[in-house]
Amino acid sequence: MNEPQRLVSLDVLRGITVAFMIMVNNNGDGNRAWWFMRHADWNGMTPTDLVFPTFLFVVGVSIVFAFASRSSRGVTPAQLARQTVQRAAVLFALGLVVNGFPYFHLETLRIYGVLQRIALCYCGAGLLHLWSGTARSKVLIAAALLLGYWVLMRWVPVPGSGLPGRDIALLDPDANLVAWLDRQLFSAAHLYERVRDPEGLLSTLPALATALIGMIAGLWLQTARSAPRKVAGLATAAAGLLLAGYVWSLWFPLNKKLWTSSYVLVAAGWSMLALMLCFWLIDVPPRHTRTIGLMVVFGSNAIAAYMISELLAILFWVIHWQRDGAAMSLQPFLYQHLFVPLGEPAFASFAYSVAFTALCFVPVWLLYRRGIFLKA
């Protein structure tokens, strides 16, 4: 069996996503950054809110091609299942490393996180794909997850608070089922926002649906259909997802921190559109330019890029000294002395984001040049 051809467009989309993720996670001054570089406060959506679901969408697409590639080399389904669980465990552990670095205080260690959610969705989507490799099964499971999550969030009373939409506001920041469950599982010291966590356990269910939609796109690209038909199919799916998501948001608002079902559909629609554009511009016909090559560097070593950016950002805050009787960390020192003088605060914040991302690119590029890839 011939090994499936690698899609350069998939590496590019992953690279763009990781680069933007590093940028929005490292604004020079998050309070003064341009609106599109900040998350929505609660309900609603900005371009920044599309970063994480796009990465999970790409994870889903990648599973389809990666599993097909390994199967073509003789890897059995049982071996694939074992590798999937092992890789998910490594990803989860790396997430704990990021959360605990550099002091690793177990009494306040955050258990949830970005890499942890990716690990759970990767594991769930991978095992479901081994159980049934059809697009139909993924459509049904994704639909069940999104409808089930809507029922839970809308019609199940929150213990101690009441029924959403009647006794309490629908998607109340503190009185919602996701936050309540997380508070039962962990003390406030282990939750990112003390009373809730944006990567909570229950909201991982609709996040899994995001990965499954990515797998459906991957299965479509894996067919023998012509490139124009593949492009048209992705465009049609994107339009359908966006329409369904925005209509559903009238009753179930877009909310990234709760990963609402409408948010899943809208984010998947934009992700599908981005994949279609990358596929059309890069793989039909095949192209490779210097700019594409730069994105492939990030995209082919995404976990390493994310880990480097997170650990470096933490170090920038941990490294500090006394100045005029007060503690000064490296991050605000660099920002105030190198970027604030550039002028308008939002531009200064954006310039810091670009510079920090460029700094992270250097070690990732060195790893790429030496053929070293961190594979979860």
Write down the Rg: 21 Å
Largest sheet: 2 strands, antiparallel
Low-confidence spans: pLDDT under 50, at least 5 residues?
none
Mean pLDDT: 94
Helix content percent band: 55-70%
- Separation, N- and C-terminal Cα atoms: 25 Å
Structural class comes to mainly alpha
In terms of DSSP E residues, the strand content is under 5%
What string, H for helix and E for strand, traces the elements in order? HHHHHHHHHHHEEHH
Whole-number total of structural domains: 1
Strand order of the largest sheet: 1-2
Number of distinct beta strands: 2
Large-scale geometry:
globular
* Total count of helical runs of at least 4 residues: 13
Brief characterization of the structure:
The chain has 376 residues and is mostly helical. 63% of the residues lie in helices and 2% in strands. Strands 1-2 form a two-stranded antiparallel sheet.
How are the secondary structure elements laid out?
Layout lengths: L7 H18 L25 H22 L4 H24 L13 H18 L3 H21 L21 H9 L18 H18 L5 H22 L12 H22 L7 H11 L1 H17 L1 E4 L2 E4 H10 L5 H25 L7
Antiparallel strand pairs: 1-2
Helix pairs in contact: 1-2, 1-9, 1-10, 1-11, 1-13, 2-4, 2-7, 2-9, 3-4, 4-7, 5-7, 7-9, 8-9, 11-13
Please tell me about this protein's structure:
- This protein has 13 helices and two strands, in the order αααααααααααββαα.
- The chain has 376 residues and is an all-alpha fold.
- A two-stranded antiparallel sheet has the order 1-2.
- A hairpin with a 2-residue loop joins β1 and β2 (326-329).
- α1 crosses α9 and α1 (8-25) packs parallel to α11.
